[in-house]
Amino acid sequence: MMSPADRLQRAVEAVGDGLLLVVTGAGVSRASGIPTFRGRDPGAVWRVSDVELATRDYFERDPVTQWSWYLERFASLERAAPNPAHHALAALERWQTARGGDYLLVTQNIDTLHEAAGSRRMIKVHGSSDRLRCSRYGCPNGAPRGSLARSAIELEPFRRRPVLDALPRCPRCDSLLRAHVLFFDELYDEHSDYRFAEVERAAARAAVLLFAGTSFAVGVTDLLLQTGAARKVPMLSVDPVSGRQPRWSAVEALPAAAELLLPELCDRLGAELPRSAAGG
Fold first, then answer.
1. Fewer Cβ atoms within 10 Å of its own Cβ: the N or the C terminal residue of the chain?
2. CA neighbours within 13 Å on the CB side: how many for 188?
3. Beta-sheet pairing, 127-134 with 177-181
4. Model pTM greater than 0.90?
5. Is residue 126 flagged as an active site residue?
6. How many helices (H) and strands (E) does the chain have?
7. 86, 87, 126, 180: which is the annotated catalytic residue?
């Protein structure tokens, strides 16, 4: 019987010059100290926070509470650093493209750890914590195409005094700003930055789908699972908790922590890791 590392190595090497499509969820950032969302971990965000809070409807009803919650989340993300899983995926990208293959990372995470580790061929399908956008549709700083760097917006007045008249506003039209993330009551095609059509096209041509640290609880994973199963392409899921694996016979569960298994994969492939990331 092959070990998870054996199975993963065989699947990745077999991609050849095809597309290796990697999909990450909150479990990949767990080792960086960022809570997961729907998992069994103590402190998982959606175990202690109402999902309703992260909706457009809630923003319109109580933007002060929502902004206070997101600023607390953003602060926790800023304290985090990439862990060996992030570094390994960046190394895997370099290895795959260096041998003439194609690679795409689709992350459900809004943190900036993948890019900090060096990932480049990446889609942040749920948005990004380092950007904001205007809440008015059609504003150049809002949906369907606009956004702003969070660093360009002065947020300290609201931190000092979290009240309605201190909320950050769009420098273009003076509407309220909001987090540049996909709310639970929004659709993937509401903003071009989510690049959902590209995800669909990638799923239709991927040679292997590798999931890491995802609970398979959101729409994008449904799309990928359905497309992969229909095309009968290999699908593997790296996650230490077997109960998180989807009830899809086509997905092979690899019960291991991403921050351990992915660096081991890179070592086997000869994909160079930073010294600080090797060995977890």
1. N
2. 18
3. antiparallel
4. yes
5. yes
6. 10, 9
7. 126
